[in-house]
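Example 5.3 — Membrane protein
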Amino acid sequence: MNRQAQAVVLLLVGGAILRASVTDLYLRYVKEGLRPFLIVAGLLLVAAAVTTLWYELRPRKVVPASGGAVPDGFVEAAEHADEHDGHGHSHDPKVAWLLVLPVFALLLVAPPALGSYAAGRSGTAIQEVSEFPPLPAGDPVRISVIDYATRAVYDDGKSLGDRKIKLSGFVLIGEDGAPYLARMVLSCCAADARPIKIGLAGAVPAGLAADSWLEVTGTYTDRTVKDVVNDGVIPYLDVTESHPIPAPHNQYEE
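Solution (predicted structure tokens):
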């Protein structure tokens, strides 16, 4: 693959990154806060590709050392030298062009966010904390799935009290057929995503489908269960009200 082809691939990669960054597509891959860095990276790649193409395609003047007229043989020799200097590698393996396939996949295909399939094969990932600030005002109070799970497990629900809690997440069907509410949590990108799982007790609707999104309102209960994947503690929410919702634009929690 010669330099011109390399520049084209670089341009496609930069364009794909910019396209993902200016839409919500980037949220399928990385944390929301990384958007400015992706935009800068995409712009730099595009700039590098354009500069390389300009340098490779600009007209070249061959001036002999004597300053006289340029013999035809000298021009042919210079062009022949250019071909062997990286501008005419006809013997390059065509398999190198397969590098553009992931780029076209990124441009043309929008992969779904990780859901119940990934969550069911990973253990719940809550981490122990020692401080629990007061809940925000509101009745019910909307908090994240990871906030509820942490308070329920490591604070024994003391900071939750009898407050009405509103959570949203996708449905995960356990091996026992019981429904759970789950969200995937990112440390950096989708490659390190781990699930947070909440058991649903009380007024849970029947016939919930995996990966459907649900908003539930309820109160803390001390009921827990062990995650079959990593023996992590999964707390429960005593549900009093629930209804289906569309998937949010950012389906991950941080």
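Remark. The chain has two domains: 3-108, 116-253.
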